[in-house]
Amino acid sequence: MLTTHDLRAAFARSLSAMYGTEVPAYTTLVEVSTAVNADVMAADPERAERLGRIDRVTAERHGAIRVGTARELRDVAQVFAALGMEPVGFYDLRGDDKASLPIVSTAFRPTTREALAINPFRVFTSVLVTDDRRYFDEALQADLDAFLERRTLFGEEVLSLARRAEAEGGLEDDAAARFLSLATACFELSDEPVDRAWYQRLAAISGVAADIGGVTTTHINHLTPRVLDIDDLYRRMTERGIRMIDEIQGPPRWEGPDVLLRQTSFKALAERRRFREADGSVVDGELSVRFGEVEQRGIALTPPGRDRYDRAIVEIDERSAGLTPAERDEVKRSVWRETWPTDEDGLADAGLAFFEYAPAPGGRLVRSPIVYEDFLPRSAAGIFASNLDNAGTRDTAREGSHRDIEWMAEQLGRTVHDPMALYAAQQQASLDAATAALGLPTIDGGTR
Ligand code: OOG
Ligand code: NI
């Protein structure tokens, strides 16, 4: 019997193997990440493992997928439920000023400390908002909805195995193998010809809309390894001749603790795809939609910490308008020095970040940081935007359609967790256990 947690770890490996054959540059990224992590580990093991054991970090990946309808979203949630992954957070990337992104998103991931320790695989999952008039007029929405209605991304066999795995907490060996192979195949790039006129009609509005609704299947868009020194990774990839985007998204490199998430990517690669022309003929062509991404994770911030982060990002934008990426990086660093305490004690004392507590000899509590397990909307929009050939179009004068976390939960028929509540509960549970072990009165972690 494989538990849902075993299935998740196996699925992450299976997807990684499949994606490596599809996108060889991904294999390079994994090799370079592994080398960077080994070097950080050799230089300073304690620092290297401050935010997670090296075996977890080395196996750690996040993926990104994009679907078209609420039904597809519900089906994919069922597949992820079999892997012990639940929806966490709501991201609304519409209204971004750099790219046309007619989507809302959630992240599927394990939610308990134990499950995260086994394998923290997470998938950023976006769904089209076809009734948003800023992007799609009535005629295009009707065609798009009809196109999406005709396709089936997840077949009955994979869904019924997924339901069984969720209900029974896992699958016996044969069923597990079958489920893993079917589930992996759902995310393979299809060689089904792409209807060129239809694809281009959507691409004029949004490259993401075309990637989702212009084809009859879905695919894994990227698979992101976690690295312990993203600046070193960026340098090494550049030395290997791989062109990275201009900037590392999120916080700068600096001397204080890393918070939240730093990410960077390399440009989408041209992949061979077949196209069906208006006259019915099928020809070879190329599409560039899939890219490589890497990330370095930091400490999870509390709501006041997150407010401070969001304000710092606005400040950086204001101060760095018109500057080069290198100059912008300097601005980021100065803002960071003005904004954050320079060590973990400072973050904890100011209630800015989440920590776990364990009892130590002498009746003391030892503190260790809780890793940020989620995504950043602003960085996500930057990652999307830097990998689209053209920004697309939208009519900002029109009214957008309403979407929020409740909408997402209702479509899924599942609870969509609030990430802050998960971190706060993890912190409080550790405080309760540690104080009980030491015979101390309980402490309120004050997680607001
Ligand atoms: C998702 C982009 C967001 C991240 O790491 O922030 C993302 C996508 O391209 O579908 O993966
Ligand atoms: Ni990503």
Would you write up a description of this structure?
- With 448 residues, the protein is an alpha+beta fold.
- It has one domain: Roll (2,3-Dihydroxybiphenyl 1,2-Dioxygenase, domain 1), CATH 3.10.180.
- It is 46% helix and 17% strand.
- The chain is built from 18 helices and 14 strands.
- It has helices spanning 4-22, 24-43, 45-48, 54-59, 70-81, 113-118, 138-150, 156-168, 173-185, 196-203, 207-213, 230-239, 303-320, 325-339, 344-349, 377-386, 405-412, 419-438; strands spanning 2-3, 61-67, 86-92, 103-109, 122-128, 170-171, 194-195, 222-225, 261-266, 271-276, 282-287, 292-297, 355-360, 364-369.
- A hairpin with a 3-residue loop joins strand 13 and strand 14.
- The two termini are 41 Å apart.
- The protein binds 2-oxoadipic acid (OOG) and nickel (II) ion.
- The site of 2-oxoadipic acid has 12 residues, from strand 2, strand 5 and helix 16.
Helix and strand arrangement:
Layout: E1 2-3, H1 4-22, H2 24-43, H3 45-48, H4 54-59, E2 61-67, H5 70-81, E3 86-92, E4 103-109, H6 113-118, E5 122-128, H7 138-150, H8 156-168, E6 170-171, H9 173-185, E7 194-195, H10 196-203, H11 207-213, E8 222-225, H12 230-239, E9 261-266, E10 271-276, E11 282-287, E12 292-297, H13 303-320, H14 325-339, H15 344-349, E13 355-360, E14 364-369, H16 377-386, H17 405-412, H18 419-438
Parallel strand pairs: 2-5, 7-10
Antiparallel strand pairs: 1-6, 2-8, 3-4, 4-5, 9-12, 10-11, 13-14
Helix pairs in contact: 1-2, 1-9, 2-12, 5-8, 8-9, 10-11, 13-14
Bound molecules: 2-oxoadipic acid (OOG) and nickel (II) ion (NI).
